[in-house]
């Protein structure tokens, strides 16, 4: 049995699957022991996917003995049940759209587990977090952490790179337009035309801007309001979200400085491609990506960067790697929960998956 801390990933969907592979692949490098994953439904059509995970070295657990029989019929071999294994692991990374429900039902009654992480849809699960953005806001009482959504990562990455270079927020106002992909590549659903989404989170507009403000509030505690707003639209594509920003700064910078600030952030990848399909295809084919995922927080479209003459208005466009750009936040939060003193060093292992250019 491998020594080291035990991690349990709950859910094997768009986010859970690559995370299971990422943890399993780098397990030894980052000092982890067993990587368990909990698959709820014994689906015939997903048996191969689960087999890939167990062959990679991850350990399957299921709901109960009754479900175990169904998994066995599919040629899959669970090593235990969720209620039992969940009690014995060090960190649980929830990758379901039901993290808050599972928190009420199970996680709250697991006192020995060091910490719990949930994903974008699970507002108020715990401290909102994005890797490299608000690490300094994590404190020992943060046993529950919510990894904010992919577009929130993207928004925060742009805000951080351009307006927080010197710590304070050099931002008069930020306006963002988010063209969301209608579904994931693994899904059958879709839409025919572009659809506007509601102004659902006043005064920020969309949930992504509201969530970005929640993250910024963990850093700038004395501020109630953050001057950002976003309009989201849904577009008939499955590949990537597309994102336009307009920032008005308090003190101006020139084009070279704006580019330099983006270049300095290793979580920003640059591209000369103009379309999301070109970016998506290149990344999928690259040996650098893991399961075709881009782990950078944003793919910045080089030729879109614009700066006004007085240096106060910066605009640009990016592609959001929606099924990859939040994964490192789950890894960083896990490693932080296990040992805040060593997690930054261990995170360097994942630099090899980051793109400079796509
Ligand atoms: N999709 C993205 O691009 C993306 C990007 C960033 C963040 N997120 C966030 O990540 C989370 C998961 O999204 P996803 O797109 O990965 O979902 P998904 O592809 O639909 O997968 C959901 C997974 O959760 C499992 N599940 C659902 N309810 C469960 C429960 N009560 N108990 C145990 N397992 C349960 C499902 O298991 P079975 O199929 O076995 O039943 C499935 O494996 C959401 O919070 C979402 O907001 C998604």
Automatic annotation (TrEMBL):
InterPro entries: NAD(P)-bd_dom_sf. It comes from the Bacteria. SUPFAM superfamilies: Glyceraldehyde-3-phosphate dehydrogenase-like, C-terminal domain (SSF55347), NAD(P)-binding Rossmann-fold domains (SSF51735). This is Semialdehyde dehydrogenase NAD-binding domain-containing protein. It comes from Candidatus Giovannonibacteria bacterium RIFCSPHIGHO2_02_43_13.
